[in-house]
Amino acid sequence: MEERPASGAKIESSIIEGFPKTAIVKLEGYIQTREARTLQQVLSGVDEEGVKRVILDMRGVTYVSSATVGLLAMYSNKRKTEEGCDAVAMVGLPKSTRNVLETLGLLKMFLLFDDIDTALNSFSVTTRKSSDQ
After folding, report:
1. 124, 117, 20, 7: which is closest to 61 by C-alpha?
2. Taking 90 as the threshold, does the pLDDT of residue 6 lie above it?
3. CATH code of residue 89
4. Domain carrying residue 69
5. What whole-number distance in Å separates Cα of residue 58 and Cα of residue 26?
6. Predicted confidence band of residue 107 (pLDDT cuts 50, 70, 90)
């Protein structure tokens, strides 16, 4: 599923059928408060698909609002509580966003990786068959 809010930001997700069922949520551009609402809808859709692990591809992000930071922190905490383990990873986290998360003490809520393959390997995903939501 792809969503393109009015600001030109882009949020899309794809599901990797396998064990554990994993979603890649790709964010691009300037993620403001209104995009945080779109992101919430995308993450809710991922949850409805029965996904166990989520990889947030942040490589194309230029800015995230405080609403987005709060949403991501709450989502990671929710997933960790439901799954009993770290279930949300971030790939390619921009330095400015990393600094914000670190300053707020939220960086430790996410697994951090440089690329998607490494994140998938950390989750031990057994199948790499993708399908768009």
Report:
1. 7
2. no
3. 3.30.750.24
4. 2-132
5. 7
6. very high
CA distance linking residue 29 with residue 45, whole number of Å:
21
Residue 7 and residue 15 in contact, taking contact as beta carbons nearer than 8 Å: no
H or E stretch covering 112 = strand 111-113
Q: What is residue 133's predicted lDDT score, i.e. its pLDDT?
A: 41
Query: DSSP string covering 19-82, please?
Result: SS-EEEEEEEEEE-HHHHHHHHHHHHHHHHTT-SEEEEEEEEEEEE-HHHHHHHHHHHHHHHHH
Confidence (pLDDT) at 94: 94
Distances (CA, A) of 126 to 52, 56, 59: 13, 19, 24
Give the residue-averaged pLDDT of 56-75: 95
- Number of domains within the chain: 1
Q: Which residues pair with 12 in a beta bridge?
A: 2, 26
pTM, full prediction: 0.87
The C-alpha atoms of residue 79 and residue 32 are separated, in whole angstroms, by 23
